[in-house]
Amino acid sequence: MKKFFVVVALLVSNLSFGQISNVDLNGSPARLSTYSEIDGSPYLFEDWARADISLSNAGLKENVAYKFNIYENELEVINEAGNKIYLNKAYIEYAMLERPSIIIANGSNEGMLTKLLFKKGYGMISGVKDTDLVNVIAEGKKYTLVRKFQTDLVTPPKNSYSPTPGRMFVFEQSFYLIDSNNEVNSVRNRTNNIVKSLADDDQAEAKQIIKDNKLDLSREDHMVIFFQKLNQEA
User: Where does the record locate the signal sequence feature (predicted)?
Assistant: First the structure.
């Protein structure tokens, strides 16, 4: 009987190890690039960076090399075997994506977060599927602020400088404020615009938070602080 339990334990252990080590079971091989003749980039960041990714059937995977294809809304990663794959979003619980160090070092935008949280489940936003990964900047009982990164593939009009117009990726980002009733408002990352998008009863408190903490809601780090404090009042 003891031998039986040992054998069962070994089988379970091997099964679990196989599920964790073979991340490619959760995705498909990365396609060969079809963007070579298109100006711009389909990726959130052109450089590879690191991510912590929680998978429902493989646990937390830390320091995974990734690129986020925002045109396809797919995470391209390098698995333990060294292969590039697209993760199956059905298994992604969340992904914490590091910004490439070169972007942080340049510091072109003050207040940039070094890590960006991406989650699914925001299908209440127009144009966003339940399986789409969006950047969750703040999440709380009263208000949640998310950002959708996207890049559209467009064909510029023909002109004298470009006799044969080619296609190009155009980068965009949109912010959405979601209240406790799941009502969605499109907002801009500007202090006045965000405050005016809040419920009337919350605007005075919001202005006080901004004043007391000297916040500028065009900054990512200040948006995080602002909504943390505003949601604490719930």
Answer: 1-18
Residues 6+ apart with CB under 8 A from 20: 58, 59
Rounded to whole angstroms, the Cα distance separating 211 from 134 reads: 29
d(C-alpha 105, C-alpha 61), whole Å: 26
Listing DSSP states for 106-117 in one string gives HT-STT--SEEE
Q: SS3 helix, strand, coil % of the chain, rounded to 5?
A: 30, 35, 40
Q: What is the pLDDT of residue 160?
A: 53
Q: Of 199, 188, 192, 185, which Cα lies nearest the Cα of 215?
A: 192
Closest CA to 186 of 141, 139, 140, 145: 145
pTM: 0.82
| Spatial contact of 169 and 39, defined as CB atoms under 8 Å apart | yes
pLDDT digit string, tens, across residues 191-230 = 999 999 999 999 999 999 999 999 999 999 999 999 999 9
Return the number of other C-beta atoms located less than 10 Å from residue 170's C-beta.
12
